[in-house]
Predict the structure.
Amino acid sequence: MTSTELLRVVTHLGSPTVLLAGDFMLDSYIFGDALRISPEAPVQVLKVMDRQYCAGGAASVAADITTLDARCHSVGTIGQDPEGRRLLELLAEMKADSSGILTLADRPTISKQRVIGLAQHRHRQQLLRIDDECTVPLSPKQYDQLYELFKAGLAACDLVCLQDYNKGMLDDGFCRRLIEAARQAGKRVLVDPPLKNDYSKFTGASIITPNRKETSMAVGFSIDRIEDAARAAALLREQLQLEAVVITLDKEGSYLRTADIDEHLPTIPLTVYDVTGAGDMMLAMLAVAMAGGCDIRTSLQLANIASGIEVGKFGVATVSIDEIVNEIIQRNKGKIGKIREDLPILLRELEYRRKQNETIVFTNGCFDVLHRGHIEYLNFCGRQGDIVVVGLNSDSSVRAIKGPDRPINNQKDRASVLAALEFVDYIVTFDEPDPLRLIQQIRPNVLVKGADWAQKGVIGREFVESCGGRVELAPIVEGKSSTDLINKLGKDRT
């Protein structure tokens, strides 16, 4: 799939619903200076500077799903403890539906506490991890309660995702019940399996996504080469009666096996800062894309991009659709170009750049028969901010404004000429007689029009100023206009 097609897909995913069942955890981080050794024992002393809490395990996947503009219905357990209450607060903050979370008095919330030392006040290094968990299976009554909560979420979901960390919730019998219920409801089941040698409980699921180490344990041989991954994927697909197997291969990307596809999908090398959470991000993007109607290969392409962005961040971090859009554009800058026919893609990119505190400038016009006046006008636009978006009147719009003999140059040619100017970043065509609707969609920080509009009233002024933006009037180059130039050319021919 081309970069433009990939952009179109990712910006039109909508807000699908993923039903996520698995081991929900609370991750906590204690940050501090670790500059000396204790006189009591040969251990580092940490001077605490900060504490942070974030969603872990299946809750991390829930955070990833909601950050990708999808809805997440969560099914799992927490303890009747402060950690459980904090985890529910985090789920509420990320707008994940926690109505399927069962609070239990007889087992704690699974929590992982990491102690992080800041060597020389700059470099983060994990010194210790403390786990508090219960991994024995739940009681039959508790499994029945969870099953009812799971079934309650089936009707409204587009896809089911099982996140298994081998912590006791998704035991063999319960896992089979969930898969059977989902398939009877006509829902695909995506599984992120744990590190274990028996995957039989996942038989009948749709897709399974083990990493290299998990795959090796499940099939009984090492995954050292791409050929090994191909052999393992084929074996797992046949044994478990799956639609597809996706084996994640770290920096080597992933391997996909379906009935029709047997392919290694490499990833683009990125600066790796922290691999924590990369698998969760891969699973979330795969789930959201498939829930949004993408085929498995396209979904995996997007998942590779998302996980590649995630490893460039510290700890378990989320990735937004805007970041994915920006990454695709940056990778393919020369191929995508300035002329944008798909407005939602442009709006996504502008939103990302807005969050980077870049100033968006908008202007519009026919730009028929480009002349010095146009050049100085657009140069003025470029000096008002970081990004210049030109709204270009379509051919039909120009005819409605200037009569049946205009434009002289069609919209494709006019857009191509504008794209050659270094101070123009994007061109988008509109059909309306005025640009108000386009201005409302783009929400520029600066709206530019020629000084001759001062008396006529600048269309979009009220909207831009109500959003905290400003209007700038560009000076007019006297005697320079397309109409005058066209009239002069007409006289010269007579």
Q: What stands out?
A: The first strand starts at residue 17 and ends at 22. DSSP finds 18 helices and 18 strands in the chain. The mean pLDDT is 89. Residues 399 and 406 are 6 Å apart (CA to CA).
